[in-house]
Every structure is written in C-alpha cells, then in structure tokens.
Amino acid sequence: MQPADSREEKLTADEAEQLVRQFKQTGSLALRNRLVLYYSYIIKGIVARMGNTYYKYASAEEMLHQGVIALIDSLERFDPDKDVKFSTYAFTRVRGAMIDYVRKQDWLPRRVRQEHIRIHRIEKELTSELGRTPTRNEMAKAAGMTPEAYDRCILEISGESLSSFEALLESPSQSRPFSIEGESFDPQEQVDRKELRRLLAEAIDHLNEQERTVLSLYYYENLTMKEIGRVMQVSEQRIGQINRKLIGKLRASLAQYIGGSSRC
Question: What share of the chain is helix, strand, coil (3-state, %, to 5)?
C-alpha cells in the first residue's frame, strides 16, 4: 500500500489534529483513511531521509508500506489526552518502526541488542546487590566472560547505542526539508522535527556533565571513543559504559513519544 500525495487533503494542521480526536471517539474507517492520506508526508519524508540506511535491506516501496502500517498503528494507539501532538507522536512511531524493520534484516544489530539487554540486567542486579556500581571485573565475572571479552562486548554495545542516538537526533546539517525527486513536503513536518529536538534537548539537559561531554565529543566533534578517553583521562571501555548509560537515559526520557519502538 503506497500513501497518496498528502496535498490531496486540503486540511490545516489544526484541522487534522481535530480529525484525529474525532477518529479516536468514533473509530470511523473513513476518517482513518483520510488521516492516513493527510499524514503520508511523514512517511515519505522519513523514507527519503533513511535511504542510506535501508538500501541494502529493503526497497523504498517496502519502507513506504511499513510506514503506512506504522501510521495506522499510531492512530490506533494515540492518546489525545496526553500533551503531545499526533504529528509528533506519529513521526517517532513511524520512524522507529522503519528502523526496527531494517534491523530485523541484519542479524548483527539484533545480537548486539540482545547482549545489551543481558549486560544491562546483570549490571542492575549487581548494583542492587552491592549497593554501588559494579567494577569491570565484577561485571565480567557475572557475565561469564574474561575482562578482555567484556571490554570488547561493551565497545560493540556502545557502537549500537550511538546508532540509537543518531536515530533519535539526526545531524543538524541535515535539517533541510524532506524531498523526493525535488518535491517539498508540508512545512508542518519541520515543526514536528523542531518539537522532537526540543524534547530531546530537555532530556540531554538532565544528563550529568560527564555524559554530556561524551555525547558532545562523539556526536558533534566526531572523536573516537579512544580519543574521548584520552581527553577525559579514562579508559576507552569506561567511555563505552558512560555512553551506554546516557543513551538509556535519553531513550527512557522519550519513551512516551517513541512508544513500542524504544528498544535497546
């Protein structure tokens, strides 16, 4: 199912939000289809931006299809009583669903995410048991690894976490309006993206100084973890641990907007 051109729907953003509320009250299939047509600009914009991510694993048509499914699911799950616009909620849900779809085509990220979950569980259990943050050797022993193998695992997990951050916030240099074959999309999308950036900026403000430094040096200054470790005078493995925790905090802060797609 390919979304039609959203310009066919002569609605303002406010009118569309009101239609969403009507749909939640009535469950009207006609309203749902009308909203899918209007909000299709979200799907097409994300597909355009993610081309370099999915081209090895899926076609643009497949991604459009996944986007329509996610948009319909967003309409079904959306709670209009929460203080967030549907367009913002749908943007995060649709993009998250597309990212999940691409990840399912690649065995490595799935394995890494599973290891991420296991290490996080072990760390949580040890912290509760010891009353403090466990050491590298304690974590390695509990995970059934040598310290060296644990270090390699943390670095691999950290790489996946950084990809997760890029899924939350794209490079500022790429903030131009979405386009496919020269077609410009509804300016409302830019408003939605600004709101998402504001929400993420607030979440970043709640990180501690060490976490903000790691985030800034890696994402904005493009330093490697080894280089960041030298700057901060800690080990490369420690930088990996800090990164993993800060990404977890950011995703937890945005969980109500990301919904089911906010997985490790």
Answer: 75, 0, 25
